[in-house]
Amino acid sequence: MNKKIIALMLGLTLLCVALAGCGKQSTLDKIEKNNKVVWGTNAYFMPFEIREGEDVIGVDAEIAAAVAEKLGVELVVEDMEFESLISALEAGTVDFVGAGMTITDERKEKADFSTGYWTAVQVVTVAADDESVLTVGDLSSLVIGVQSGTTGDFVAEELSNNPDTGIMRYNTVIEAMQDLKNGNIDCVIADDLPSQAIVSQTEGLKILDLQPSDKETYAFAVKKGDTELLAVINEVLTEMMESGEIEELVNKYSLGQ
Question: pTM of this prediction?
Answer without folding.
Answer: 0.85
